[in-house]
Amino acid sequence: DTEVTQTPKHLVMGMTNKKSLKCEQHMGHRAMYWYKQSAKKPLELMFVYSLEERVDNYSVPSRFSPECPNSSLLNLHLHALQPEDSALYLCASSQDRDRTGYTFGSGTRLTVV
Amino acid sequence: AQKITQTQPGMFVQEKEAVTLDCTYDTSDPSYGLFWYKQPSSGEMIFLIYQGSYDQQNATEGRYSLNFQKARKSANLVISASQLGDSAMYFCAMREGPFAQAGTALIFGKGTTLSVSS
Question: What are the backbone dihedrals phi and psi of residue A69, each rounded to the nearest 5 degrees, phi first?
Fold first, then answer.
C-alpha cells in the first residue's frame, strides 16, 4: 500500500462541474506536490507546497486551484475544465534530506467530457 | 531546453537479459540528485534508485544499478536479469540544489517503455 493516498482513483466530470482531488500523507513529510501526466508527455509539475505554504511560480490555468489545509493534506479544486485537462494527476510528498526520493500516490485518472 | 532527456521511447528485452535505459541531464547546479522511477500500468510511481552528484560510487539497489558519468551528464539505469514484472514505464528525474532546501520538486524525462518477453 502506498503511503500517499489519493482519492478518488477515477473521476469523470463535465466541463461545467466543480470537483476536488484529495491527497493525504502521514509520513510527516514537509513538502507536497501536484503533477499532471498526459499521454506521451513528461510529468508536468503544477504546484509545490512546503510547510503548508505554496512555493512554486508555475503558470497553471486558474481552473486548477490548490489548497493545503494542513501539512498532511493537499487538495486540488477543479472548475470549468477542458477536455485537454484529461490526464493522470499524481500527488507526491518529500522530506528534506530524503535520499530515497519522493513518495507518490497512485494518482487520480481524470476524464473531462 | 530539456533538463532530462530520455531518447528511447521503447525498449524490448528477453527475460534474464540485462537492459540499459538511457538518461542525460542538464544542470549548472553543482549539487543535484538523480532518481529513477518505475511506473506500471496501475499508475503509481515506484522509486528505484538514487544517485547524488557528490557520490563517489555508482548506486546499486538489488538488480538495479546506475551508470553515473558526471562529465558526460548521463545517468543510465541498468537492470540485470530482466523479469516479466519489469515491464513498465521508466522515468529518470532530477532534483537541483541541496537536500536541505525544502520543497524542491523533481523534474522528469519523457520516460522509456520497457517490454520484457519470455
Answer: -65, -30
pLDDT (tens digit, 9 = 90+) per residue, B65-77? 999 999 999 999 9
In this complex, the residue of A33, A41, A100 whose CB is nearest that of residue B105 is A33
Instruction: Let me know: does A68 contact A22? Beta carbons within 8 Å.
Output: no
Over residues B10-56, the pLDDT tens digits come to: 999 999 999 999 999 999 999 899 999 999 988 889 999 999 999 99
Place of cell 557528490: B54
φ, ψ at A29 (rounded to 5°): -65, 145
B44 at interface of A, judged by CB pairs closer than 8 A: yes
Q: Are strands A108-112 and A87-94 parallel, antiparallel or unpaired?
A: antiparallel
Minimal C-alpha gap between B16 and chain A (Å): 27
Q: Which segments of B1-118 does DSSP mark as H helices, in order?
A: none
Contact at CB, A42 and B45, closer than 8 angstroms: no
- Enclosing H/E stretch for A36: strand A31-37
Q: Which three cell numbers stand for residue A90?
A: 499524481
Query: What is the β-pairing status of strands A31-37 and A44-50?
Result: antiparallel
CB pair distance less than 8 Å for B50 and A101: yes
- CB crowding B36-72: b at 16 or more within 10 Å, else e: bbbbeeebbbbbbbbbbbeeeeebeeeebbbebeeee
